Amino acid sequence: MAEKLFVYGSLQSPAVLKVLLGRVPPSSPARLNDYSRFRVPSRSYPGIREDRGSCVDGSLLSDLTVSETVLLDAFEGGEEYVKRKVEVEEYRDERVVADAYVFRKHVVTAREDWSLEEFEEFHLEGFLKMCEEFVEEEGQKTRDELRWAKCQENSTGGDGE
């Protein structure tokens, strides 16, 4: 089954997705209620955290393959984000369950929101270079892990035993 992912920061940029995934998956406008977006100090990207009464506008990526999901998990993984199931509103007021990367650290910040337009104007070039390096280094590891998992699945008849 294709995965859905709510994105609210750098992963909204088609240029970033193209470098990371080699394509730009289908997306639609979406809103995540009871969360707020904030600038991560000393970084060009944002985080989100639970915040009753607030909302975050972003995009809902759909038709992500397993390998794309694994790559994005590795990209957003580490100590800063945790992947959570959230309920988002699509532009037609439909509610859908999707994954989102939620900032795990408590960061004291001003309520200043993050802007995709500002990111693309001032930080995109350097961020794309970092994405290219990630795909070269980590992307190969991820592809190797996927090949190994596929071989394991094939050798066990697909039942994982």
Written account of the structure:
This is Putative gamma-glutamylcyclotransferase. Belongs to the gamma-glutamylcyclotransferase family. Putative gamma-glutamylcyclotransferase. Keywords: Transferase. With 161 residues, this protein is α+β, with helices and mostly antiparallel strands. The protein has one domain: Hypothetical upf0131 protein ytfp (Roll), CATH 3.10.490. It has helices at 14-21, 66-76, 116-122, 124-155, and strands at 3-7, 27-39, 46-64, 81-90, 95-103. Strands 1-3-2-4-5 form a five-stranded antiparallel beta sheet. A hairpin with a 4-residue loop joins strand 4 (81-90) and strand 5 (95-103).
SSE blueprint:
Blueprint (H helix, E strand, L loop, with lengths): L2 E5 L6 H8 L5 E13 L6 E19 L1 H11 L4 E10 L4 E9 L12 H7 L1 H32 L6
Antiparallel strand pairs: 1-3, 2-3, 2-4, 4-5
Helix pairs in contact: 1-4, 2-4
GO molecular function: transferase activity
Protein name: Putative gamma-glutamylcyclotransferase
Function: Putative gamma-glutamylcyclotransferase.
Whole-number average pLDDT? 87
Uncertain segments are none
Q: What structural class results from the helix and strand content?
A: alpha+beta
Query: How far apart lie the N and C ends?
Result: 21 Å
Question: How is the main sheet built?
Answer: 5 strands, antiparallel
What's the level 1 CATH class?
Answer: Alpha Beta
Q: What percentage of residues falls in helices of 4 or more residues?
A: 25-40%
Function: Putative gamma-glutamylcyclotransferase.
Protein name: Putative gamma-glutamylcyclotransferase
Family: Belongs to the gamma-glutamylcyclotransferase family.
Keywords: Transferase
